[in-house]
Amino acid sequence: MTGPDSDPLALLRSRAAAMYDRDPACQSAGISLDEIGVGRAVMSMPITAAMVNGHGIAHGGYVFLLADSAFAYACNSYGPVTVAQSAQVTFLRPAAVSDRLRAEAVERVRFGRNGIYDVTVTAAGGAVVAEFRGHSVMLSAPPPEEEGDARA
Question: Whole-prediction pTM value?
Answer without folding.
Answer: 0.88
